[in-house]
Amino acid sequence: MFISKELYKKKVYGCWVGKNVGGTLGMPMEWERAANQVTYYTHENNGKPLANDDLDIQILWLIAMEEKGVDIDAKILGEYFNEFMIFTHAEYGTAKTNLRSGLQPPVTGTFNNDFKDSCGSYIRSEIWACLYPGDPERAARYAFEDAIVDHGNGEGVYAEIFITAMESAAFFENDIRKLIEIGLTYIPEECAVYRGIMTALDAYDRGITWEESRELIMKEYIGHLEWHEIAVEDAEKGYDQGKMGWDVPSNIMIIVFALLFGKGDFDRSICTAVHYGEDTDCTAGTIAALFGIMYGTDCMDEKWLSPIGDSIVTISLDPFRLEKKIPRTIGELTERVYKLYETAAEENGSMDEQKTDFCAPSYFRNIYDDLNVVKYEFPYLTVRLDYCGDPVLKQGEQKKIRFILSNNSKSINSDRVRIYIYSRDGYEIRPSSEQAVFLTMAHMGSGIKAVEFEISSEKQERNIHYFVAELRFEENKNSHVMTIPFVLVSETGTTMPVVWERTIKGDKILSSPRI
Fold first, then answer.
1. Pair 397, 481 in one domain
2. Which structural domain range is residue 186 located in?
């Protein structure tokens, strides 16, 4: 949709300033489980915002698109994530380990990941909304590519898509309730994020207080808060218990509650988010960024702006290799995002589109069919690699993998595709290393087919098992040789239950695992 250059920059600038304001407000209480009462910054101001990975990873995506182009996918994002994002905790660390092993998204975000339902992806949604203002569908598709890097098939994916759709629409719509309803159309009704949002809407409509809504979250949606402080009152109610990594449904609920309780007031909205506790910098930062998109900095009193200025402070990006590439100010970041926006608009024609409905088209949710497969696109052929479960090869056991092939030719054509799997010595591949399948065009009856292989090894001499699938059209397109490297890993050991211990720390309790 058309938006003037001046208005666009005003909104994008407000978005990034809001991200810094909300993140700085909430950072001192991040991941503390306690009801707070704040009306302003609680840290000692030094003229700069507090560093926050919420903005950092979006800067990394900015750099990736400047170097690789705006039409980017999860594989390229994963490469930059692995190379330049230096945090190694929770879902970030799990994804980096999987990426280093040779796995690809979304498997990198699913395999061995207790935190795929956590908050690390929705907090970096703004970049996609800013590149595709008023085009939530396209913005959400890139958010999907982003989220699956470290959240795989988890709830974190739905959370980022929900927030991205809201933010993209917010360039042209400022009714909070409508934005929430727009976001809901992009996620499946059966996911926990959707259920949590609906619970939040129902509770707000019943007129409950924010304190009562916090109790609702604690009773029905909490995850386990490890290594962080918990209010004694909350611990006595049993609120120090919960599923490990089950964090995003509750924090999205906090965002929804705070937006509704805030009634369009910036101060009230971001402070209410921090009142709930939990991932306070992320909830307040997301809300403040949304307000920035709707109103620029006009909605923000100078008291929020002058103490942190225009600067950007990073914490999770490689300071050596990226030092000259990281924007130093919000103004510079805005200008660089605008250049990418111009490129994206030129490539997609989105600047000329006139949308009257920002809700998801009926087919959008088909995107979730790819949550458990690695997708490769070649000229004439789309290949989806399905590990049929975990990418694990166990000694003496058959491991099934499946290739789903789609003939994506734009002209009527049929051909036979040969698949050959190359491996090192010591592996048996059944029914054979080579299979062939006949494909018509994908929209015709025989245009999509699945081919299965079973791989086994009697000896486990390696921790990572390397293979290459070669695909070749036998006749019409036999000059196109397509290769897909893939890995299987060895896994041993038994996961032991965690024993949690409490330590009294003033008026708080520290819940930590016995290690």
1. yes
2. 5-349
Residue found under tokens 């993998």: 401
Does residue 230 lie in a domain region?
A: yes
pLDDT at 353: 63
d(CA 385, CA 399): 14
Q: Are residues 158 and 306 in the same domain?
A: yes
Are 158 and 196 in contact by the 8 Å Cβ rule? The answer is no
pLDDT score, position 444 = 63
129 neighbors 95 (Cβ within 8 angstroms) = no
**Collapsed DSSP state (helix, strand, coil) of residue 308:** coil
* Separation of first and last alpha carbons in the chain: 54
**Positions in the chain whose pLDDT score sits under 50:** none
Residue 45 confidence (pLDDT) = 83
In this predicted structure, what is the pLDDT of residue 442? 62
User: What was the pLDDT predicted at 491?
Assistant: 82
What residues form DSSP beta bridges with 403? 385, 451
Tokens (6 digits) for 72: 């980017």
Residue 374: name the closest of 152, 224, 172 by CA.
152
Q: For 15-27, how does the pLDDT look when each residue is reduced to its tens digit (9 = 90+)? A: 999 999 999 999 9
> How far apart are alpha carbons 273 and 281 in whole angstroms?
9
Which strands sit side by side in the sheet containing 399-407, from one edge to the other?
A: 374-378, 381-386, 399-407, 448-456, 428-430
